[in-house]
## 1
Amino acid sequence: MKLHWIVFTAICLLGLCRPTDGLFGTTSLQDYVDNLVDAAKFKFEGMLSVNDSVVGRMWSFFKSKYGRAYSSLDEEKQRLRIFREHLKYVLETNLNKLQTYELELNEYADWSTDEFNSLKKGLIVSTSLRRNFLDNYDDDSEDKDSFRRSLNKLYQRHYRSQRLKRSMINRQHQRKHHDRRGFTDWLIGLLNISTSTPAPANNNNNNNNAQSTSSFDWRSKNVVGSIKNQLNCGCCYAFASASVLESLYAIKTKATSVTDLSPQQITDCSTGNSGCNGGNFAPSVRYVLGQGGKIATLASYPYAGVKQTCKTSGINQINLGNIEYGAIPEGDEKTMAQALVTYGPIFIGLDADSKLFMFYKSGVLTIPSCPTRRQDMDHAMVAVGYGYDSTLKLSYWIIKNSWGEKWGESGYFRLVKDKGNMCGIASMAYYAKLT
């Protein structure tokens, strides 16, 4: 009996050193929350129906599942306040039975929106686009003032990123040194169970003509690489660029499997981009072209989650050939669908400045009044297809993200299609081809 107790204690102590997700792998945070909340009562009483004791149990479960530890009691109080706000938002949003999507609390439930925006995004509007936009308006233009506000918001987000990243690193360090409080929480949780190419015209020269079908998905053709996780580095542009290129290479070579390419090389080495502080598609492609059309495999140049010194030796590079690319006409979803079918997956920018993205679980996102201007795009992803949901009676885009497989629909999400360029889906979109 004494031996059993020693073994149990050892297992518990192991839980102090890392997230205990394995212990809670069959129970998501949202499932745990839903089991504790009376939806009917919450509908009428709101957060008043969820007392402090219940929130405390949710909080303990969250910390245990994701291995959270905080540097002080004050920080934990602040994180609990953020958690409570997100809990309220998700529960209230999911009450709307008419909406076409569902949210869930996840590993970002104790992050502020500023932290999320700085660490999980990273699409930067090009300097030439900013300059051209400003030049097109008079100094007293209301549009120009609005754009300057957008730029100030962008700059502030990136200026904050270094401080936020240092804070996250400190938190990760604290996880390795849990105190007795963490041990107690763990037990409570356990017991509470450029070369520009013209955009394709609508024609019938391609067997996969976008106009002849309501659905198309490059994943079904085994040319889309696996879902990756950019971690706490704002290099979504590098993941999206690498994803597009690896798909195009698989299409070009008619490969039976996809060779994963290295977003880390783009993050470390590409000029015109800013490492973990953001970038875009064109500088990424120009870098690869400058290397003679070669890019390293992910296996030989693995992802580190931070910007490192550019590696030039000891890596295995794939020769993609010449890359031609061009921009989709702004807001033109029909041309974008045609380009996707004709060439392959599309690099896209989105305005993801909404907690709907942060806590998306499933369904077709529709966001009223979501910005569509190019200068508001802040996150890069890849459109890999489109379809039609007969139950919801909505057309949608299939979009590959870089926040890991546990986010959304196994790392993907669906955004409503042909509804006024939702969130700028076609405002900053690039297609490419290998020749």
## 2
Amino acid sequence: MDKRDTNPADTGHSARRGNVVAGLVYVFEQVMPDPFVLAIGLTLVVALLAVAFAPHASLPVILTAWYGGTFNILGFALQMILILATGYAIADAPLVQRGLRAMAANVHTPTRAALLVFPIVAVAAWLNWGLGLVVGALLSREIAKRVKVDFAWLVAGSYSAWSVCNSGLSSSIALSQASHGNALNLVEKATGQVIPLSQTVFAPFVFIPTVLVAVVMTAIFIWMHPKQDDVVAFSETQPELAAAAQADPHARDSKTSSFAARAEQSMLGTLFLLALGVGYLAMTWYSKGFELDINTTILIFLLVGLALQRTPIAYADAIRRAARQTGSMLLQYPMYGGIMGIMTGTGLASTIAKTFVAIATPVTLPVLSYFSSLIITLLIPSAGGHWAVQGPFVLPAALSLHASVPRTAMGVAMAENVSNMLQPFWAVPVVAIAGIRIQRVMGYTAITFAVSLVIYAAALWLIP
């Protein structure tokens, strides 16, 4: 075993950082169970809290509310899975892969690596969080093959750049509140109105700190790169990683000429779907004006992925590869839906909301929503599932106090960006694609947590 690998989080800058890393590794590996197990535990806790404090917490009400919430969220769960899968399919396209390799070929120093990774991954994640995850991991590997950089540092940088995703176009909280009839559009259920993205994703209090985090963390990561003697570089010594790097996932058997093979390789199916999708978007935007919700966002990424993958079978194969990353989401979303059902059905959410109203003001509520979200994210890593739990009590509080509803909702989303740097749930697919141990990455992302915590909180408090 490489001696350096026995203490991979030690960057040589300070012993304090090593202590932080050791603590994080212990918490995430020894204390916190799998997110699905956490979701089961949270369900039990919420049910007990409902029995203790909710006004309508009879056993029949709890069971009925849990069942209804579990299955009412399935449509939203599929939407979130498709967000990830369609983003993955774009990043998986041969044209995108060649582009990543071409960009990586121009990188010769750790500084240039950070200057490339942060803007590319941040933009990709802002557009689609699934796209950002895959682009970050693949771009990191391509750079690390060519330049002697610390691989953990590089992957952590890409994950840090990805952290802005909950402030972007695929933010489940922002999109659900902009989508008429969505199961998690709690604003529409309470007020009859939707919140357009202009008041959330494109609002200055969201957009400015999002850009600032990417810029500031680029500079900090350049400063944090280990000295050359301490660098643990990328090495494809694991056979499965080498095979994956050498294999062409888009290679087809050109010898077969069956009808099935010709149909799979024909672009006619792709062109037909593109015509349907583009036609619908053109018709809708011409008659109603440009607007985005969850479904149109998924449709756009579907169309882009189809165009880049070219043939139906190539796109289907890409989605099959993406599906490997969605198993935990399939389990967790129904559990969080059940929690939301218990909270709303028993009146527990309204009880908690009254507590928020008692201690908050219209100005401080979004900030309280932000800081409470930091803690909840560590237990519920999915923004959609998180909103299903926190939304039912922060939204009524905002309405009661006449506080800013968009600011309160996006306080939850921005805190997701921050706490994800200490929550390894979304880092798992990144490190799996990159081929590195997650423990080596979390030490660096702890710094991102601290910096982005201050930036987003200040923006939520100070920017109109």
